[in-house]
Task: inverse folding
């Protein structure tokens, strides 16, 4: 429901109880929905109404949403104290969070937005403040969010509405913490690209270098034995060499096993923290991001020849008989395209395996505010990460060379990381997640 400035001329009175604003009504049938006056509830975003600024209107919009007394908005806009207006808006937001499945939630938030605009208050700033039991509204919406099976298709998800509001660092950190508590990797990846401070969207250098039409990185995560805290990620890095040469790093974040993991490849510059690694070396990095706890990690990076049928992107493709270039090569795999003439064998390079393990102490989380221009400085600091030089494997250096057998013709590198929070029983154990 969108309120116009015509309401400001009505007689003032105290705001109604929340039961009157958000009644217990059944979801509105889809065939009764209307496009009129539905900037927020139909699109899932909060939009500033031009009428709130210009003061013009063609009359009250017709809405199928439960009608509420408009005089509370007039009362709210004419209060002498901005503090009282802010407190009233916060109270309404608190009630919306408690009744997040109410069909009137969108209307109440839209009206709060317009009330703030009428008084020159920042609605987005209020939404990023910790005024609900020590947390921001988005924290509670994520923690209390019903499962997808419990959600109705006839109502707007309150989370969709809140994600249309730009976040500051406080709100983003709160949202990340909530994702940790509910272990929602899919939502976390969505939050990384919400506009505002700390967004993980493409940097300016990335967009200038690759263009807006370039395919983005893809990340998948899988869980193994819960008693060992095992997990696996598959990371497809677009234009790996070009980004490493011109930007100096590529990175991603993943939620797994109650932590936000940072995986990165970095070109070390002016190295003083790791004297055994030469400056200019390409290294793989594993770290954790606050609010994650400090952590042990035992695992390995695996990078396969891009022609390998073991890569997820190749498993559904037919191809010639292949074998690895190794003394312990497995029995050749033959494609299912038996009708085609025999193809010559394709000899694959052995996988690049980079073992990764904490030593005497756990790695400490990197503060969220450090993910900026000084990212490399913080991520390679002692005690913050596990650093593995690519050249520690005989073929690791080849990732720097044009035509590398591990980077496909489009410039994409597929990386597999298999990790565990507990130390493997056998030091010589080769596979953590099978």
Result:
């Amino acid at each position: 429901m969108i309120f116009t400035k015509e309401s400001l001329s009505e007689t003032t009175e105290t705001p109604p109880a929340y039961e009157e604003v958000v009644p217990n009504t059944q979801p509105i049938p889809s065939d009764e929905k209307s496009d009129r006056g539905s900037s927020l509830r139909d699109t899932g975003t909060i939009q500033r109404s031009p009428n709130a600024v210009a003061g013009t209107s063609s009359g009250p919009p017709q809405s199928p949403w439960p009608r509420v007394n408009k005089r509370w908005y007039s009362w709210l806009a004419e209060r002498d104290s901005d503090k009282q207006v802010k407190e009233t808006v916060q109270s309404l937001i608190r009630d919306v969070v408690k009744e997040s499945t109410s069909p009137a939630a969108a209307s109440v938030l839209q009206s709060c937005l317009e009330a703030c605009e009428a008084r020159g208050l920042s609605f987005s700033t209020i939404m990023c403040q910790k005024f609900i039991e020590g947390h921001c509204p988005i924290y509670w919406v994520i923690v209390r969010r019903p499962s997808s099976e419990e959600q109705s298709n006839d109502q707007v998800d309150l989370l969709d509405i809140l994600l249309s509001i730009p976040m500051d660092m406080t709100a983003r950190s709160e949202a990340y913490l909530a994702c940790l508590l509910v272990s929602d990797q899919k939502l976390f990846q969505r939050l990384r690209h919400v506009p505002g401070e700390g967004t993980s969207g493409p940097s300016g250098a990335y967009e200038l270098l690759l263009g807006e039409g370039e395919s983005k990185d893809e990340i998948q995560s899988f869980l193994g034995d819960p008693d060992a805290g095992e997990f696996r990620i598959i990371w497809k890095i677009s234009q790996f060499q070009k980004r490493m040469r011109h930007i100096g790093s590529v990175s991603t974040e993943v939620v797994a096993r109650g932590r936000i993991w940072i995986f990165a490849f970095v070109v070390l510059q002016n190295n003083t923290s790791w004297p055994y690694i030469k400056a200019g070396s390409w290294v793989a990095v594993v770290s954790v991001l606050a609010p994650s706890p400090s952590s042990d990690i035992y695992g390995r990076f695996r990078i396969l020849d891009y022609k390998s049928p073991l890569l997820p992107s190749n498993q559904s493709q037919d191809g010639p008989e292949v074998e690895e270039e190794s003394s312990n090569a497995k029995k050749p795999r033959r494609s299912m395209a038996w009708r085609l003439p025999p193809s010559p064998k394709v000899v694959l390079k052995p996988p690049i395996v980079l073992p990764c393990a904490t030593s005497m102490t756990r790695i400490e989380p990197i503060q969220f505010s450090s993910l900026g221009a000084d990212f490399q400085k913080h991520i390679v600091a002692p005690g913050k990460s596990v650093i593995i030089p690519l050249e520690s494997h005989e073929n690791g250096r080849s990732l720097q060379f044009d035509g590398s057998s591990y980077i496909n013709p489009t410039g994409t590198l597929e990386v597999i990381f298999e990790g565990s929070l507990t130390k493997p029983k056998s030091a010589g154990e080769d596979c953590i997640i099978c």
Residues 82-98 form the longest helix (17 residues). Confidence is low (pLDDT under 50) at residues 1-43, 48-72, 316-342, 427-434. The first strand starts at residue 218 and ends at 223.
